[in-house]
Give the backbone structure.
Amino acid sequence: MTASSAARSTSSTSHTSPSSHSIANSSFGDEARDGAGDGAAGGDRLPPARFAFGARTWKEVAHLLLNLPEALAGFLYVSLWLYAGVLTSLTVIGLPLLAVGLMGARALGRLERRRARALLGLRIEEPSPLSRQSRGQGFFPWLWTTLKDPVAWRTTLYGFIRLPWGVLTFALTLCLLLVGWPLLGYAARGMTNLDRAMVRGLLSPSSELERRIAELEEDRGVVVDTAAADLRRIERDLHDGAQARLVALAMGLGLAKEKVLEDPEAAARMVDEAHGEVKLALQELRDLARGIHPAVLTDRGLDAALSSVAARCTVPVSVSVDLAERPAPAIEGIAYFTVSELLQNISKHSRARTAEVELWRKDRRLLIQVRDDGRGGASTDSGSGLAGLAERLGSVDGLFEVDSPPGGPTVVTAELPWRGRTAG
Amino acid sequence: MAMDYGRDYGRAEARRAHRVPAVLRAPLEGRTWREFLYLLLSLPMAVLTFSFAVTMTTAGVAMLITFVGVPVLAAALVGVRALGAVERARARSLLKLEISEPEPVRAPNGKRGLMPWVGALLKSGVSWRHVLYALLHLPWAIGAFTVSVVMWSVGWALFLYPAYWWMYPTWWGQPGMQIGAEPGHGAGLFVDNPFEIGVTCAAGLALVLATPWVIRGLASVDRLMVSALLGPSRLAERVWELEEDRGVVVDTAAADLRRIERDLHDGAQARLVALAMDLGLAKEKLEEDPEAAARMVDEAHGEVKLALQELRDLARGIHPAILTDRGLGPALSALAARCTVPVQAEVDLPARPAAAIEGIAYFTVSELLQNISKHSGARSARVDVWHSSGRLMLQVWDDGRGGASTAGGSGLAGLAERLGSVDGLLVVDSPEGGPTTVTAELPWRG
Amino acid sequence: MRVVIAEDSVLLREGLTRLLTDRGHDVVAGVGDGEALIKAIRELADEGALPDVVVADVRMPPTHTDEGVRAAVQLRKEHPGLGVLVLSQYVEEQYATELLAGSSTGVGYLLKDRVAEVREFVDAVVRVARGGTALDPEVVAQLLGRSRKQDVLAGLTPREREVLGLMAEGRTNSAVAKQLVVSDGAVEKHVSNIFLKLGLSPSDGDHRRVLAVLTYLRS
């Protein structure tokens, strides 16, 4: 569990960093393009007049200038309620005052995170709200939870140390703005970097648990949404497939029924058609049912189910399942659909000549490996089928890794948390 | 989703009204004596924990300069945590406090070995909260012990005085209990005439009646201390809850799919197989025996209509199309129209919530209405849906015979679990004799 | 009778075409989605050859939700004389209400299953084309169940309820008589009893009676 969460957290950071890179890249790209435009247009007409700095720098400058009013207001607020609260805490009324002040501090933090997002392009996740259980349980639990809220206390600290820094940055930026124009860009970047570090250090949901909570909440959302989408898809498939076919069939039979005595020839043809239809409808229902949850998986488990998937694959597949007992139905289902989607991918895109599926258990994890000798080049980039699989597995604390150099071979390894039948 | 609702209704045992008022009951109640026992045991436990924690941690901290300090400190923390486990067990059994074990010590990044583990132990907030508990608990335990023991024993002693008053003159050679005797200042007062005995007894009774509430108050502070300092942290609890939720969601989704597959298999597919057979036979018979063939075609025709009906019901159970097309309002009024009990449905929403939330809300109402038409004996029902401060609220009311509950294993319990797994809530108010109001709450996602 | 069919499943579209052609009707166009349907009708109307009736599926591309109902409502607004019969895999009272809004002439809303009873289905198409109504029994059951006038409805005898239901489906008196295997006169008597109990003014003509009943149930 820890291994996976650590691995996932690194993967999640690597998810966020490319996006910030891409923002940076695109803005550099703009400048580069402008420059090229200058060169090309130099001979004909004057380049369009523009501010010396890009929008990014201006935003940073705005942030630095805003630091002063923010720091003043924040410091004033924080010190006021803190002194008032701590002093009156000696009597009884101080504690609620302190708690209300801390809630205000949380709001301050939210404001600051928003400002950093707008002006510094810094995306900080919101810390998890105070637990819902304490809500509606009465006054004292609320008081207690609020008073020991680490997020609010860290924001308080932030409010304190901001004052000198706010004054400094404001003064420095103003000076540079007036007299030190050439240095402004560099100074703004340097100072905002320190700002960024402060916001990241004091206003982010820092603890491992906070991160885990954010991750789990997202997971749960993904799982709920996929489940709902699955149901809608099944309903659609039923409607467009078997139901439509049956209506046609019913109509044909209705006609045949009328004709059977008067025009046996025509009736015979219709009955024949209907017979063909019903077989097709059955086939469709069977495929749909298999796509929903194959009966053989419920009855016999992964080994039998995967063998039957392998048998339907256009590429020869060898399957080896090494499990002493069956995992929980949900895990079994996810494992099955992972392999079946991977095999579909192989027969569609890989041009492999053979493939291999292996399943085994290691400690508290169920491991799946699918190998093929196709042309490789598969990746979990967004939009691909593999990305969907990776997300689905991630939402149950699973892992999904693709090793597929161009030219092959491709090895896909998936890991699921093991849950036994009785425990699950 | 085929659940047993039958058990929900008609179980309101243990709700008998007590004839004796709570004030008179308290001194003899099990709870009072359990809490008193807890406070009694607190003293030796607190002394033990305090002395252990103080000696070991100070020793450990003092020796930190040398290499030996770390293992000593680690041992101190392990010991304090073990004592904390005993304290939790004590609180669970005597105070009926629901408290789960705090998160175990885990080395970061799944590293193995003793050193990372010791590091995690020393860094873990849980360990230090245990130490804090050990320190804070002793003064409190002394105070609580003294107050409760003195009040309780004096109370009973005075209250029972009439019962053992005769012992004074017979065995100890004095007229009665002696009050206010000071050395050198006379003998004070002997409680020996009926009036004085009566007053003493009354004072004892007052004390006996009051002490349970004092004990309760003291135990509440203990409860707060144990759950705040020895329990899992708020975040750890939330993680645990979310992990559980996600498991529930995954399992229900998987179970839903299996159910659909089974329904398809047992319903439409089976029927189609029969149909295919009929048609095959009819095809053969058409030429030789047109009459028989006509009959078979007729049967097949009936069969296919039934199959269609079944598929339609199944599809509606999976996800009603009108919900996707028109949202909760029309979907719920369609549901209400199909209920055997007259139902009035009101939906007042500013916008459509996310598809998943809509689906959960729909199926919640659907199950509640099924419940009503099957078990409640209601003559009318009402469904209200509205949006309130970031939550989607559902209320289903009926005038049936009540007695529904979310006790374990029932259909309502399953529903409550399902809602809980997405941070929702299900509250059932169903006094015996009705009416029943079920209120559900879901987080609003747009 | 000239018919336009809108149905995205080719199988069903062809089946319906065959079925109607077989009965001597003229299928002038077959389309696969709501927009195409509206376009086809407009073109036909421009040529002065408006069809008698449109048979449309509810769920069609591109959104696969309720295109058919929306197209039907729009067509009825544009061409009041055009009969519209909506077919669906499932029936919802809500859609019936939307279709009946405005005027109840020339409207039909049936479960797709009903095509199995070929004769009845074709009857319904013809009825709608002639300005009558054809509501699915399931819709009628929902209408009866949801009606706010439960106490009045409770005053009907079981037979009268049956007749009321069949009338609400849009059947003529003689069709009701045939369905219940009784004489026309007996149905006539039931009908006048029903009108008396519901407090509706007696009117002649099957269409108008049906309308009166539907209006009553929906109010």
Summary: Chain C is about 55% helix and 15% strand. Chain C has two domains: 2-136, 147-218.
